[in-house]
Amino acid sequence: MFNQSDQTSETMRHLLLASLGCLLLAVTLAVPTSDKEKGIIVNLKNGEICAFSVQCKSSCCHRDTGTSLARCAPLSTENQKCSKLSLYGTYYQCKCESGLKCKGDWSLGGSVTNTNFGICEDPNGQMSATS
Predict the structure, then answer these.
(1) pLDDT tens figures, 9-47
(2) CB 69 within 8 A of CB 49
(3) pTM of the model
(4) At the top level of its lineage, which domain of life is listed (predicted)?
């Protein structure tokens, strides 16, 4: 009743479902149950190899060059270089810590080439200095 093509399609469908199930299980087991536990795929500590910023506790997956391995890094502090947003999930300069603002010139081309850098500044500190 089934020809060879139908059997191959059905086998591929079963393999795909099994692979997705294994992936879901692996991700579920990799998520730590507390902040103190080390993650395998997410909740990574600074210095651990990452592919995307969402994997890092600090929310910054940083790379020095386009060919270097990306590693989780701390967020930029006041007066350090920073990036506003990365389209790729990794940064050449991390975003600013909470409460700081990344001030700089931004362009669409810089967003694509990941070269939009600025300096982290305290927006409240600047207002009080000028008042």
Answers:
(1) 777 676 666 665 555 545 544 544 455 556 678 999 999
(2) yes
(3) 0.62
(4) Eukaryota
